[in-house]
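ok so I'm stuck.
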Amino acid sequence: MLRFTKSFTQQEALPQAAIDRAVDILQSGRLHRYNLTAGEEGEVALLEAEYAAWQGVPYCVATTSGGTAIQLALRAAGVTPGDKVLANAYTLAPVPGAIYNTGGVPVLVEIDESYHIDLADLRRKAEAHQARYLLLSHMRGHIADMDAICAIAEEFGIIIIEDCAHTMGARYHGIRSGNFGHVAAFSTQTYKHINSGEGGLLTTSDPLIAAKATIMSGSYMLYERHGARPGPEIFDQIKTRMPNFSCRMDHLRAALIRAQLSSLDDTIERWNQLYDRLDENLRQIEGVSLPQRAQAEFYVGSSIQFRPDALSKADIPAFIKGCGDRGVELKWFGADEPVAFTSRYDSWHYLNDDTELPATKRALDKTIDMRVPLTFSEEDCDVITTIIEAVLTEHIAA
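replied:
not stuck anymore, here's the structure
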């Protein structure tokens, strides 16, 4: 029996430059973001400047996690307790958690068969709830029609906060993901496109949002030590009116990210070679369907989603187990109970929202999710899809 032996959670080693710089920082003992000598910029400030330049925006704040970046983005954009926040229902738990943390009230929006936010439902709920905010998750790297979303937002006066945890480096019509909304949040958690264990980045072109996020990140009155900040006149407007949440990144993680940022475009190219091989192979399997990618979308294929339509929903657990027994680790977004990182919108009971979203359930009922580690080769992709086809065929025959 063919079996795959590589781990789906094994990441590549960090570049030697990251390791060497990390050792230097550890030996210095100066890990805190503001523990600097006279005239020293520090790793966090340098990262903020470099990432802002890479993203093509003037402002960036480095944070302790992607979830923290989302929370700061929401607060800096103006969300206060009781405010309605539109959000696509297909996402991961830290996203509704961030809304809950601000005191906002999530209004979950349906998705379509391609895992994009449903534009008709977005319009209906924007009008019905008079919501002023949209937290748009580009979940698992699938970018919706951003032209249409921005048009709806403009029509209803909605502020867009982009969750780009899965789309760092992706583009739509040539525009970087994160540069459509008023503010964006990125993640550098281990399974994202840059690996610092945990970490986040907030970007914006709005100087007031940037200043608010900087103060809230824990700058005290040391905001001039930030690497991609607005001018002091902006801080003068808000510096004593923003709470301090003490969640800016430390030097160690910033150094790890800086060493990977310079090669990110090459990393994305390698990821997409693996993704495209898997996509091509899976599309040849009878009884399997994959979402269609828009021509305008340049994606980053760090994970792949497909549906074994030939199976019933009741067959999915056995199919996943069969693949797992042969070394192919799959996740399922249609399960009625959360498992590990994977949960469906109706398992977030703390939201006290019993809204039914039938289109989202239909889209997720058979949705299988698979990581695409860079430790794999294109030949590995062939082995993986051969196993998936074999297990699927066995279950169809049974």
